[in-house]
TrEMBL record:
Keywords: NAD, Oxidoreductase. It holds the Pfam family UDPG_MGDP_dh_C. This is UDP-glucose 6-dehydrogenase. GO terms for biological process: polysaccharide biosynthetic process; UDP-glucuronate biosynthetic process. Belongs to the UDP-glucose/GDP-mannose dehydrogenase family. It comes from Microbacterium endophyticum.
Amino acid sequence: MKLSVIGCGYLGAVHAAAMASIGHDVVGIDVDQHKIDTLSQGKAPFFEPGLQEILTAGIESGKLRFTTDMAEAQGSKVHFVGVGTPQQKDGYAADLTYVNAAVEGLLPYLSEGDLVAGKSTVPVGTAADLAKKVTTTGATLVWNPEFLREGWAVQDTIDPDRLVAGIPAGAEGERAADILREIYYPSIDKGTPFIVTDYATAELVKVSANAFLATKISFINAMAEIAEATGADVTQLADAIGHDDRIGRKFLGAGIGFGGGCLPKDIRAFSARAEELGRGESVAFLREMDEINMRRRERAVQLVVEGLGGQVYEKKITVLGAAFKPHSDDIRDSPALDVAVRLHGLGAKVTVTDPAAIENAQRVHPQLGYVLDRDEALTGADAVIVVTEWDEYRRQLSPEHAASLTAGTVIVDGRNCLDAAAWRAAGWTYYGMGRP
Ligand code: UDX
């Protein structure tokens, strides 16, 4: 099927390449000329496992192309909108400028019977507003949220847990759902649930899923705070409660908390939207989740200070990690960098290393020191803190080897990802998050 994808960021670029990889004829459109040039050369503009391969294959097969010209959307049967909805500069609400501009820009090129399929994460009610504009052209709006995780984006797009389609009532909606089924047939054939809802439900599925995940992480981080007050070990606690199927072990990793381009801004935008709807109290707990999450970053800083005897001024501290999570070069709202910046603010000499995110980090926080090579970064450190659980630090760094490089032996495990006993046995003073 002929498809257009408006917006070629994390969501759109992956969606465009993934749709081409399952046989569709795709044009990706973005206003950023540099991004379009990079993608047109078959190069991934960001680090995402598997993306490079499907981009190159798509471009070589002629099934995938990129342009800045919205007019090239004309003739596509379905137009996916996957532009960003960042947090507003002066508040918590989502900034819908890009979504509105994308849909407005598309209107002149829509034909009778086309679908516009919204994928961006938007405040509930947005689809109904956009539908008013889209229907003036004879096209139909559907809401088809995206649940991809960075680092797994290609797999999550080609083979998602579930597909959700928010459609208008009546025959027009049924026809729209059938077109989406046709697009996603390889995954539906394999048994992926295809859930058809109204617009509001589809929009809410996305934000409530993210709110639930954020709540799960903050819950275990709250338990980490209680563990710290009692001498309990939150990692054992998480294992034990996670054996209950109803709770589940996933997303119970206590540490410096969640970050990235989605969870923090999405729970804030959800709170702001709920307030507008007069239902602020229904999600008041999300503010608390946000606060618990942010407190854990400060706790990690405190542990470094404690480990170094009360002050870090002029101390050499190696920060292992910059990305908001492993397998990503994304530093948007990265707890790892926030911890590094806070330590720098206390006068420490901070050296940050990361296998993928150094360039991005350097651009945004040029005041910190950066070294690509892990061992060079560790050399001479008074204290070390792990803030992104890359395998390079979690599995491939032996405590004995680390100790042979550093000046001091204080290790703060901001992600509870190290073998505490092994580090202690090698002579380190080990601090975990919510662990004795
Ligand atoms: C998230 C959702 O998982 C995805 O479904 C949605 O489409 C977009 O938002 P992503 O932002 O890629 O995806 O990252 P995710 O893997 O969810 O991790 C988010 C943050 O939570 C990271 O900073 C991670 O380190 C942190 N996290 C995750 C924890 O602190 N503990 C955990 O147990 C799990």
